[in-house]
Amino acid sequence: MTTATARRDFPRFYRKAGSLHRERLWALRVSYASLIFAAIIFLAPPVYMLITSLKTNAEMADQTLSPWLVRAPTLEHYVATLDNALFLTFFRNSVIITVLVVAITMVVSILAAFALSRMRFWGSQMLATGVFLTYLVPDTLLFIPLYQIVGGLGLLNSIWGLVLVYPTLTVPFCTWIMIGYFASIPKELDEAALIDGASWPQMLLKIFIPVALPGIIAATIFAFTVSWAAFVYPTAFVTRPDHMPLTIGVVSQLVRGDTFAWGQIMAGALLAALPPVVVYVFLMDYYIAGLTAGATKG
Known about the structure:
Blueprint: H1 3-53, H2 57-61, H3 76-83, H4 85-117, H5 124-135, H6 139-152, H7 159-165, H8 167-183, H9 187-195, H10 200-211, H11 213-229, H12 232-237, H13 246-253, E1 255-256, E2 259-260, H14 262-297
Antiparallel strand pairs: 1-2
């Protein structure tokens, strides 16, 4: 290329680079505007709940005041909620249910994912796809047949009935996540372990679980969130207050006819949402890494 040609093409290159820069700048502005809009939409309900929970009953009843401003902040609703023995019972039930469901889910999911991803057998791929497809069936369609099953076992109005049915929500997706993570581990690891005389359980415990720890954490977080926040099943299966989890206990016991204890309802809902928020804050990186591996390798 001659010097004259380079000089002639330089303005064209400059215009093209400037155009790409403007397009990227425009895309960046649109992205930030979309993120800000989405953040406002998603944060508006919890912010409103927080504001309402800090108001006195008299301030909430005054229709002339702005619903988004607090004139005299108070913690009386939080104190009343924490002093309520039923709320502590709901919290204890949620903890018991969640811990048991997460434990059951992880044991079943890890074993199933290991078998489907590494121990190849006839129909394993079809079975793995079927496991994920069961997750796509909404719980609003499953709770009626499950109600008959739980009732036949005599587990209605019991937290053990919820421990039995919650894994139908958590096991399929957690298994799919773990299949993707186990599939991303090089084949040479298990081949070398087999040559050295390791058994399949030893391979799982000493090789795959340590390597796939981010995926296990991601599946655990998912199981924890679903178990803690489940609403349809406890609504259908539990009517006794002493066996209710937080998701339905806070609402059902703080509403009396047409009287709504809005301050305590909002305070109780925020307190109930606090554990999942804390878990996500500290383990978000592992959750994203596990979901990414499960999505790309599954």
